[in-house]
Design goal:
single chain, alpha/beta, 37% helix, binds NADP nicotinamide-adenine-dinucleotide phosphate, 15 helices, 533 residues
């Protein structure tokens, strides 16, 4: 597959493959390193632009829904190739807009193209559609009808990316990849913190759509510095689902908008999480210094701007003197960090100050730009259990160390937790036997339970669950990372009594695609072909 070329930056929305007019409201990206304005100027999409983008998606939807998995796989591979080919350009611009270091962004490019190819592989395999066939039995009383079902796309999907992953959770990130894979046109509301990176990626997607021959309305990118465009999109009657990655406040606002529509639609919002860590006695005894150093690296990685940042840590105080000492020392020696936007830096300062009145803290000096001080907050479990605000996420390089009295208090803290993306337990085998109940409680609170590794770093594969009960996400039955993310943007459709030619190929008697199917309750292998009757 030939890769697609990126043009220059235009500062305008891309609607169904064409540039929008410049409007009246404009904004800029900023360099978090020094607070400087970045060119070009970006124009917010107008109400008419929103209508045109949705109309394009509506027009593209039936054709895109009927396309084969192989055809959509070609599209995803073309986007992935385009991203890899433009890696240097993307890294330079993303670095200017986010101050995330080059090695991190290099990894993010690979992750972004890698997850597009992961979905392409899922489509090429084809079995993901969950084909189920129950054949007719006219002799039964009453006669049993022929019923066949599979997963089908929802229709136009609106995607909101987050500031902290300008590629992997943005314009061609996991939400876009999974929604396109499932057969839905996508309209992205660009994140205003990295407009240039977003526009470069949009051009790659547009070129890939054209190259593979899908309708131009399969993809649009709309800019807006505020919330008007996003709100219009979510409320538009032709939009059928929303994928969101960002703050709890943003996700909740979109959930409320979507559920108050005449036709409520699903919002898959992946929101904030504090990712509790429990360091059990055996692990503290064996490696408290290494754990404290590792924890410091993990909660300050990327300036602490990871949705999986370990934001609260539970230890038995009587056993944790060395651990606490090393952690405090690491924090005081850590450098100043750059946050992604001025807004995030202000909220960080405000939130740390608010919690500092309830907890003790040590931290480094903040430097230039949108800077933040590495901070450790410490609190007794009694205070933690009585003040809910202590468990809320602070986005940035801070963690909360909770000193527990004994095992029972740790369990009490675990039971009081809300939904999070991850929970981590550092433990010896003996600890795991002794604290088996803790693991059972944590399993009810999170999407991913981790033993003896820090939660930052989310592998993109078939088994990953990046989700968790509310408020970590709007729907704890889903994941936004990994191939299972495709199931958010489909619904099951049953076909009763359709002749063979009118059925989707996946459901015809002859299993020409060679996919796994449930045939009269038995899983048939991909190679098994049922003879036509
Ligand atoms: P954000 O401020 O919520 O922004 C996300 C996007 O939603 C932006 O385009 C934003 O537009 C838009 N938005 C926010 N509030 C809105 C509203 N009320 N109506 C319409 N649109 C709205 O989040 P962020 O600061 O970029 O990202 C940081 C947060 O994301 C952290 O809490 C982090 O934990 C979370 N995160 C979660 C995951 C995950 O998978 N769970 C992954 C990465 C990040 P504006 O910028 O114009 O407000």
């Amino acid at each position: 597959m030939a890769s697609v070329a990126v043009e220059k930056l235009h500062g305008r929305s891309w609607i169904a493959g064409a540039l929008a007019e410049s409007g009246s409201n404009s904004f800029h990206g900023y360099s978090p390193a020094d607070g400087g304005k970045l060119e070009p100027e970006y124009f917010s999409a107008s109400a008419a632009d929103v209508e045109r983008a949705v109309a394009g998606a509506v027009e593209a939807a039936p054709l895109f829904a009927r396309s084969s998995g192989m055809e959509r796989a070609k599209l995803l591979r073309a986007i992935a190739d385009g991203i890899d080919a433009a890696a240097e350009q993307l890294i330079v611009r993303a670095n200017q807009e986010t101050a995330l270091p080059r090695p991190r962004l290099t990894g993010e490019v690979a992750r972004t193209s890698g997850q597009l190819r992961l979905f392409a592989g899922v489509l090429e395999d084809g079995s993901w559609v969950n084909a189920r066939i129950d054949t007719a039995d006219p002799m039964r009383t009453p006669p049993k009808p022929d019923i066949r079902s599979m997963l089908r796309p929802l229709g136009p999907v609106v995607v909101f990316g987050a500031s902290n992953f300008p590629l992997a959770f943005s314009v061609a990130g996991g939400d876009t990849a999974s929604a396109l894979a499932a057969g839905n046109p996508v309209i992205v509301k660009a994140h205003p913190a990295h407009p240039g990176t977003g526009e470069l990626v949009a051009q790659i997607i547009n070129a890939a759509v054209q190259l593979v021959g899908f309708p131009a309305g399969t993809f649009s990118l709309l800019f807006d510095e505020g919330h008007e465009v996003g709100a219009r999109l979510v409320q538009h009657p032709a939009v059928k689902a929303v994928g969101f990655t960002g703050s709890f406040r943003g996700g909740r606002a979109l959930m409320d908008l979507a559920s108050s529509r005449k036709e409520p639609i699903p919002v898959y919002a992946e929101m904030g999480s504090t990712n509790p860590v429990f360091v059990l006695p055996g692990a503290l005894k064996e490696k408290s210094e290494a754990l404290a150093t590792g924890l410091h690296q993990s909660f300050t990685l990327g300036g602490g701007q990871f949705c999986t940042k370990p934001g609260m840590v539970f230890v038995e105080e009587a056993l944790a003197a060395d651990f606490t000492k090393t952690l405090r020392a690491s924090v005081t020696q850590s450098p100043s960090f750059n946050l992604l936007t001025e807004g995030i830096a202000k909220v960080f300062d405000r939130s740390v100050s608010a919690k500092s009145s309830l907890a003790t803290s040590v931290g480094t000096e903040a430097g230039a730009g949108f800077a933040a001080q590495g901070t450790l907050l410490e609190v007794k479990a009694e205070a933690f259990l009585t003040d809910h605000s202590l468990s809320e996420e602070i986005f940035g390089p801070v963690t909360l160390l909770v000193h527990c009295g004994a095992a029972a208090q740790m369990m009490q803290a675990a039971q009081a937790l809300e939904g999070h993306l991850t929970a981590t337990v550092f433990a010896t085998e003996e600890d795991l036997v002794q604290y088996a109940d803790l693991l059972h409680v944590l399993e009810t609170k999170v999407g991913r339970l981790i033993v003896n590794a820090f939660p930052t770093g989310v592998e993109v594969n078939h088994a990953m669950v990046h989700g968790g009960p509310y408020p970590a996400t709007s729907d704890g039955r889903s994941t936004s990372v990994g191939s299972q993310a495709i199931f958010r943007f489909v619904r099951p459709v049953a076909y009763q009594g359709l002749p063979q030619f009118a059925l989707p190929p996946e459901l015809r008697d002859r299993n020409e695609l060679g996919i796994y199917r449930l045939w009269n309750g038995k899983l048939e292998s991909g190679s098994h072909v049922v003879e036509s009757k």
